[in-house]
Amino acid sequence: MLVSAAVVFSSLLSCAVAGPHARLKSPKNWAKKTALMEVLAAASPPSNSTTFSPVAVAPKANIFISLTDDEAASVISFLHNQTELNLTAAADAGAWDNAIEVVDLVQPNKTDALEYLDNGGAVPDRFAVARIAFGATDEPYLQDFIVGPLPISNSSTYASLDWATTSGSAKIRNHNADEDLLTQWNLDVTATVADIILDLLNGTATGSDDDDFDIWGETLLPQGLFFKSDITGRDSSKWQLQGWLYGDVFYSTTEEFRQAWSSPDFVKYDLNLPSSWIGSDQTGDFFPGDNIAPPIAVQPNGQRFSVDEEQKYVEWMDFSFYITFTRDTGLRLFDIKYKGDRIIYELGLQEAIAHYAGLDPVQSATSYMDTFYGFGPYAFELVPGFDCPTYSHFLNATFHAAEVSTTHRNNICLFESDPGYLMQRHSSSNYLALTKNIVFTLRSVSTVGNYDYSFDYVFALDGSIETIVRASGYIQSAFYAKNNDYGYQVHDALSGSMHDHALNWKVDMDILGTENTFVKHKIVPVQVKYPWSNNTRSTMQLQRERVENEDDAKLYWPRNGADMFLVENSDQPNKYGEPRGYKIAPSRGGAGMHLTIQNSSVLLKSQGFATHGLYITKQKDTEVRASHANNDYDPGHPLIDFDAFFDSESLNQTDIVLWLNLGMHHVPHTGDLPNTVFTTAQSAFIISPHNYLLNDASRATRQMVRIDYNSSGVQLVKEFGGKMPSGMVNLTAIQPNFNNYEGDIATRKFPYDPLHPYNDTESIV
Amino acid sequence: MLVSAAVVFSSLLSCAVAGPHARLKSPKNWAKKTALMEVLAAASPPSNSTTFSPVAVAPKANIFISLTDDEAASVISFLHNQTELNLTAAADAGAWDNAIEVVDLVQPNKTDALEYLDNGGAVPDRFAVARIAFGATDEPYLQDFIVGPLPISNSSTYASLDWATTSGSAKIRNHNADEDLLTQWNLDVTATVADIILDLLNGTATGSDDDDFDIWGETLLPQGLFFKSDITGRDSSKWQLQGWLYGDVFYSTTEEFRQAWSSPDFVKYDLNLPSSWIGSDQTGDFFPGDNIAPPIAVQPNGQRFSVDEEQKYVEWMDFSFYITFTRDTGLRLFDIKYKGDRIIYELGLQEAIAHYAGLDPVQSATSYMDTFYGFGPYAFELVPGFDCPTYSHFLNATFHAAEVSTTHRNNICLFESDPGYLMQRHSSSNYLALTKNIVFTLRSVSTVGNYDYSFDYVFALDGSIETIVRASGYIQSAFYAKNNDYGYQVHDALSGSMHDHALNWKVDMDILGTENTFVKHKIVPVQVKYPWSNNTRSTMQLQRERVENEDDAKLYWPRNGADMFLVENSDQPNKYGEPRGYKIAPSRGGAGMHLTIQNSSVLLKSQGFATHGLYITKQKDTEVRASHANNDYDPGHPLIDFDAFFDSESLNQTDIVLWLNLGMHHVPHTGDLPNTVFTTAQSAFIISPHNYLLNDASRATRQMVRIDYNSSGVQLVKEFGGKMPSGMVNLTAIQPNFNNYEGDIATRKFPYDPLHPYNDTESIV
């Protein structure tokens, strides 16, 4: 196969002085223990409840739970015994070896899972997926295998996981398996222009430890010098330099570049120099009063939710759910029940695209699909008092990569909080009624390279669930020269490279069973002649429209919220004839949720899930995920092409799945330096009961008060057992000790060209 | 003038048993004192700051501050001395008298205000507006007068406030000045069908104290029986009954109605009966653990913002602003400065429309413009621990109506809080940096009849300001019969009447002076051929477009957030050449922000500000408000027709004003019973610095931590003076005492037909 078409710019020159994007040099220590939370647990006051237990017992085994260390080890051992795979231990493997990259759970088929959860069926067999990189060949590739059933026994087998793809094969070509050769190639190429680099950039990039520059893409300090290589094949002696780019002028040979540089009218651009501006420490005049500790939330009387730590099962008020954690997508929720009925079978991230654009080939060709790196490996320990309230309940999570089982301690937090506004209020001539809005949040944060993605699942007393993503961390930026059509100049020689974020969520809703229908309830202007009026009136109506086929199931969110999107069970009307359902709506943000570009030259066949706001498909056990972590190796020939899910199937009262994007168009401005802030980089959707119950479910809480009064004053204060917090809280005792932070070593993603992606597993595990 | 065209249904029959919408019977006691907050003040721990003062001194007098009681009294006295006005004391005035309804401040001209604030000019003269109802005439009307300068002296005069209108006259016709006659008319009409009412509704509506029903529109208990009257003129003997409506069948005479009712095939509908479902008290099974007090926010070390109580001036971090409060629109902010520079001259609500639709004439003809009732009179005392944190700083506010000066105590709260997520975070291989997101909120709540509108202005450390409105309280509903195209059936005989909320805000931004330009920065898909590639690529670009004329200044929010809307000072580029500006964007909600109907038969010429998402006009001292509280008297001939602001004026680097809508399309479902909840009924916009400073302003806070680590563990915890809260907090001592609530008497709005509105001041002032 000729892959030169897919090779644009395999490498590029940019600065990597010590700064926010220093490359990983430290050993991995994912599983290092910490005592941070033990202090908090000891200081936490005892609950004043005599009946409530913060310990839950899962009613069913968590069949979605991550592979145990033992399971992972047995799978790896089993595979090493399959001699035809010719595996090398991951720790010893080089570019010409075959090695296991990732082992994870194959999520049970929904059919089997429901049989177990609802109908007393057997626990579904557990299977693992093993992602193996095959380097011992002229045409390196990756392949997923299904292994099981677990535990490994004589009846366990392995097979290519073809059925989970739309391509029909779990194999994907790796066009850039030779990182070591590429590093040397890049140094060899730049050595031929060392004098030009010294002149233009006032530094060196020779591969030496005392280099000023690195040959690299993603950073706050790009310098605007690029070269193009054809690195087709595994023999780097056949690779070819195809040209140089500087100041938007392309030179097809080094000689041409050198000649231009030598000429007196060669335009040299300012350098993009580091200094304190790239750091995120406090800077600027202190605010008045800011030395005083700000308000803080406390939980004086104990935890009001229950956790089954072993089964990763949680109960809060009328909600319950199971948690799992995967290498590719991090935290996921399963079997979310509300008042005893399942409302969501599966809720979790599918993929996160960050699609850049720019005048230069790096920005233009960058569109991260972050499951390539994985959200699991980068979901580090959270800091109480900052990332989550000091009183939060923390959970650990484990993933298995490079034949290492890694446990992040305290990387998921669960907490109740008061979001600062009420659930309900009303005042009348004789009473005032007020209900607190206490919400329950499940949170994890993944730092995938430059960006910190914070994920919240927020449950509320009215039966709603909000899914929120926020982004902070460093922007990826561009050299400033002539990049004005693609971003703002944000520093002396820096452009805030414009990009779209699109993060796709799978929301497999089941409203009173799996047979559901997606309906649009449209609010439309109409002209009507009524019997009681002589004139035609300009008014509006509610019009109901069903989405009955996958042909009509790629939706944009309507302008001005003119349509309500619902999942209903049309066969389960309430007593008034309205089908019971849940509404799905955007709730935060407004800066865009899907990609601007609908036919990206970078993402090719791998973008189908990100071109619209919302998609509906018929649930199939073979259509589990909208994307695949390995799609990024060859986006033109992906393992999962989401568009292939749409094959005209009926969506009428059947098991439907929503695939929904959050995100934003991000054109970084000066306020993104040093870091983007969460306040203006957030996006969310909320699902909420819609004719689902017969009244507002929050009426069940005790956390309300009614004050009856007349002109003589208050006549009655009616409470319902939800008294205000009382007693003493020792704030000093609940201060977290930041010195106990585990210090998970953060790794980062490397530059890559999605038209010619390469195996980055060394750094990302 | 013939007004019969404007008369559709002047009255209607519905239930008003004791319930959530009981009509006001109690005497007014707006200014009753309360001791609620004194308890809290005594229990609040002392600040640990030795330098910070919670008391501010306004740098300039608050020239926007509400009229003092003395000023209002002197204006009223002055007007009573103008014999040609023929005024009767409000307390004694009947339908055939002239009486002062409202006295308020005439906001100073911006020209004069800036001269004072910025250039050492004189304090602008203060003027009052007096809204007078003229009933002593066959053609009753209302008229606004400007009175001043204040204090009243020999040089004070009064004049019709024509220049503040677009109609050219401050007079507006009152087509329904005779409420007493109308009440009697309605009883007389219904008396003719008392037997039918007894049969259909199983009750009476005779005006007696033991009636089962009231003749009224807005309630949870409509019964679906309507009659149509022509009430043109002030002589009720000439009024005419024009027909009856029941079950969507119109009978043009009582005889016809009676005949139909007598026939065996007359369809009788179910009654809409009250019971516990209309109450908002706790109901349903208690949640497990809900007897435990939930988390609560505390402010252990004192207040970190400063207030000049007398001048209603506030400073928080790098922000400062002045507050005022008006009868029509409640809380308003002026002269919002950020880092010493004004960014907003004026920020406040203009109008709140709730536009209904329905099969019946009441729903179809209802479109509230709530400044008619006023947000000031209904902005009652807030409850600490529910409406606002217990540690909030409360302010009072005063309005002047019906010749009474009324002070709401503690009806505005100011507080800092932690919204539950960080401002900034980033982790790398060697450090983790975290910054708290402490926000400052200014809040008031107005219960205008059935709905409780909560208004927040939220200031953040990154320089952003979010304006949020949330709605709770009772829905207005419709009788269920055949109303399916206009709402869901939500109870036995009840339809949740569909409606649009559109709340218009004036946002008079001034970025580094008044000469500003509105620009759209559009993110657009493009095809580009780059010099470094042989192929045309499908990518995206940033395109800048100026809105230079009022002809182009009615905007919709773009689908998928594809355009960024900015106010910039094009003549004030930052050092990198990017104009300094602020971005305006939706931030919460997603269920719609402007009206569905663009040419409402109800609102007629009074809806111009609600048909789009956002408008830009050139600032003029004569175009101060988008709407007028009296527009509702005659929407076809409004005092202020917002569309008239658009007269092709240049918006290029001039003083521009934004008029922006928040809101939602609301199709109430069962979850809106008994009350709509704030969680899913909220809408917001945020303004945030955009290339305004050279970096993220939140870097100035001390509330951050950096944890440096390597593979050996934490090496350094770097703090910046923002330590975690410490010491003991006595939660019992800070519990509010709800028995001290003032119990402002809530009044409510009456049914009205905007095609024939009537004077409702008896109940609303």
TrEMBL record, chains A, B:
Keywords noted in UniProt: Copper, Metal-binding, Oxidoreductase, Signal, TPQ
EC number(s) from the headed UniProt entry: 1.4.3.-
Catalytic class of the enzyme: oxidoreductase
Signal peptide residue numbers: 1-18
Cofactor (UniProt): Cu cation
Domain Copper amine oxidase N2-terminal: 74-154
Details of cofactor binding: Contains 1 topaquinone per subunit.
GO cellular component, one term: plasma membrane
GO terms for MF: copper ion binding; primary methylamine oxidase activity; quinone binding
Post-translational modification: Topaquinone (TPQ) is generated by copper-dependent autoxidation of a specific tyrosyl residue.
UniProt-recorded name of the protein: Amine oxidase
Native organism: Mycena rosella (Pink bonnet)
Organism placement in taxonomy: Eukaryota, Fungi, Dikarya, Basidiomycota, Agaricomycotina
